[in-house]
Every structure is written in structure tokens, then in C-alpha cells.
Design a protein that fits this description.
Layout: H1 2-28, H2 32-47, E1 49-58, E2 63-70, H3 74-77, E3 81-83, H4 87-95, E4 99-101, H5 113-118, E5 125-132, E6 135-145, H6 153-184, H7 194-211, E7 215-222, H8 225-232, H9 234-250, E8 257-262, E9 265-270, H10 275-290, E10 306-313, H11 320-335, E11 342-344
Parallel strand pairs: 10-11
Antiparallel strand pairs: 1-2, 1-6, 2-3, 4-5, 5-6, 7-9, 7-10, 8-9
Helix pairs in contact: 1-2, 1-6, 2-6, 8-9
């Protein structure tokens, strides 16, 4: 009896120590990966499952993806995605309720999809939602307790507590990244703003100089945009800017940066790109705009063209301000003549 009480006391001390460590981590960093990895590590130490994972809800796609997977099946399933409602994890994500299932073969919510991919045999599962202010952000799922033991109600309680920590970490990180995003993005087009552009351009120019590569930018000014605002109002004008931004993004590489410079002006930063190739990118954007009918969802059918200026570093300028000035100057040569065209510095 005494040994049993001693073991129980040791376990409680271990639990409190782990909760304290996680609490300190939450207040010391906003690195979501670091926090979640610590939480998942402590889950392994405390509850000793064979496999365990944290799945997050992808709100845009409406499904679940594996943020963290630990155990022998990790490599095989880490790129899988689950539909909302699919399997036990999907059920918990939809319902927002915790589940303790000693024998999955007797539960109709269990599906074999993950086992078929991993070659693993799931026997028992404990799964809890990551909830914050009533919203489900994801789930933590533990599969098969080590030594063929079954998960207990105490395990469920501990996992629920750890999931609360994980949910707080996720919410804090999301707020942090949202605030950070608001400081560097334009709220109309969702492109980067000029504040971010200058910092990024300075960084890329230093990198181009170090590696002796060219860097190009494209300056874009919409033609007769004022007529849209005067005819249909500023709300429609803002919607047009958003649709133009979407068209621009479809023409760029992942490494390229699109910026709303101000009003109806845009700047594209093209790292490791000589002027000739930048002109080709400008032509691609111009063609896409020419072939797009804008504002159809608003019951309008607007054709929008633009004037483009291209400049490169170090051939045309030796500072970020001068590079923008040269591209802007080239753009105005088109603006003051034909419009709907491209000019290189």
C-alpha cells in the first residue's frame, strides 16, 4: 500500500513538473513549433502511447493535416490529410468532444484509412480537441498505449489538460502572426505594403551584390483607374484593385514579391532576375490583365489595362530608392504616350 502511494505521489509530482515546464514555455516564446513540440514530447513521457499526433484544421481547405506525428508510422502518414468527420480525429474535430475508445474495432467512427497507409494496427485511441473560446483549432490523438495496456480516464484527463495548453499556444501564435501580418500587408489587396517593400528590397539588393546577380523590379500603374472610382464608387474601385492583385500573383514565382505601392500603383520585386526576363514577366502580367474581365461578380464587365516600367540593379540604379525611381520613370514614358504598354529603363 505504501509503495502504491509513493508511486502515485511521484506520478503527481512528475505531472505538476511537466505542466509547470509547459507553462513557462508558453510565456517565454511565440514560436508555435517549439511550444507544440515540447507539449507533444511531454505527452509521450507521461502517457507513453505507441504513436501520437497533433492535427490542425485547415480552414481554407476544410480538412485536417498532421502538424506533428510521433511514432513508427510518422513518415508514412505525415503528408496525409483527413476530411472533417473522417475517422475518430475527424469526428472529434467536428463535434469538439473528447473520446476514449478502448477497442476501436467496436466503434463505428473508426476508419482504416490511416492504418492501410501506415501498415499499423490501431487497437485503442484517446483523442481530444484543441479548443479556444469554443472554437476547435485541431485535435491531439494518441494511439495504442505501450505494453498493450488500455488508456484510462486519468490519461484522458491529463491529455485534456495538455491540449488546453496547446490550444492557448496556437491562439497566441495566431494572434501574433495576424498582428505581424497586418503591419506588412495592404488590407485591400492583401499584397505586401510599401513599408515591407523597402526592407525586403534593401535585403535583396545586398544579396544580389554579394552573389553578383541582377535584381529587377516592375512598376505598374493602372490606366484610367480614376474613371472606375468616379463612375462606380470607391468600394467597387477597391474590389477591382483586389482582383488585379490576384491576377498579378498568378503570374509570379514563389520567390517574387508583389506590393501595393499606393493608390492604383503596384511594384513587383524579382530576385535573381535580369532585366530582359523581367520584361517577359511584365508582358505575362499585361497579357493576363488584357484577357481578364474584372468585377463580373458585381454584375460589371470591366476591362483594365496598365502601364509598366522595368528597371534592374545594378545596371540602372545603385540604391533601392533610385531603382524604384528608374522603374517609375520608365512607366511614365508609357503613361504619357500610348498606355497599356511596357518600357524598360
Amino acid at each position: 500500500m505504501k509503495d502504491s502511494r509513493t508511486d502515485e505521489l511521484k506520478r503527481k509530482i512528475e505531472e505538476l513538473s511537466i505542466f509547470n515546464e509547459i507553462g513557462k514555455t508558453l510565456t517565454s516564446t511565440l514560436d508555435i513549433k517549439e511550444i507544440l513540440n515540447i507539449i507533444m514530447l511531454k505527452i509521450g513521457e507521461l502517457l507513453r502511447p505507441d504513436n501520437w499526433s497533433l492535427l490542425r484544421i485547415d480552414e481554407e481547405r476544410g480538412d485536417l493535416y498532421f502538424e506533428i506525428v510521433v511514432g513508427e508510422m510518422a513518415e508514412k502518414i505525415k503528408h496525409m490529410r483527413l476530411k472533417m468527420g473522417e475517422g475518430i480525429a475527424g469526428w472529434v474535430a467536428v463535434k469538439g468532444e473528447k473520446l476514449l475508445i478502448p477497442d476501436v474495432s467496436k466503434d463505428e467512427r473508426f476508419t482504416l484509412n490511416v492504418d492501410l497507409v501506415s501498415g499499423f494496427e490501431t487497437r485503442s485511441v484517446v483523442c481530444v480537441p484543441l479548443k479556444c473560446k469554443g472554437k476547435v483549432l485541431g485535435v491531439i490523438e494518441l494511439v495504442n498505449k505501450a505494453g498493450r495496456n488500455k488508456f484510462s480516464e486519468e490519461d484522458l484527463f491529463i491529455l485534456t489538460t495538455l491540449a488546453d495548453y496547446a490550444a492557448i499556444a496556437l491562439e497566441n501564435a495566431q494572434y501574433f502572426h495576424k498582428v505581424k501580418e497586418l503591419t506588412i500587408t495592404d488590407d485591400v489587396t492583401r499584397l505586401y505594403n510599401s513599408r515591407y517593400m523597402y526592407d525586403y528590397l534593401e535585403h535583396e539588393m545586398r544579396r544580389s551584390q554579394r552573389y553578383e546577380m541582377e535584381l529587377s523590379i516592375i512598376f505598374i500603374d493602372l490606366d484610367y483607374f480614376k474613371n472606375v472610382n468616379d463612375t462606380y464608387g470607391h468600394l467597387i474601385g477597391s474590389r477591382l484593385l483586389r482582383e488585379v492583385a490576384d491576377v498579378i500573383l498568378t503570374c509570379l514565382r514563389n520567390v517574387d514579391i508583389a506590393v501595393r505601392y499606393g493608390g492604383d500603383e503596384f511594384v513587383i520585386i524579382l530576385p535573381s532576375t535580369p532585366k530582359g526576363k523581367a520584361v517577359l514577366v511584365a508582358e505575362r502580367i499585361r497579357d493576363c490583365m488584357t484577357n481578364t474581365v474584372f468585377l463580373q461578380c458585381q454584375g460589371l464587365k470591366i476591362r483594365q489595362t496598365a502601364s509598366f516600367g522595368v528597371a534592374s540593379f545594378p545596371n540602372d540604379a545603385n540604391s533601392e530608392l533610385d531603382l524604384i525611381r528608374q522603374a517609375d520613370k520608365a512607366m511614365y514614358q508609357i503613361k504619357n504616350s500610348s498606355r497599356d504598354g511596357i518600357e524598360a529603363a
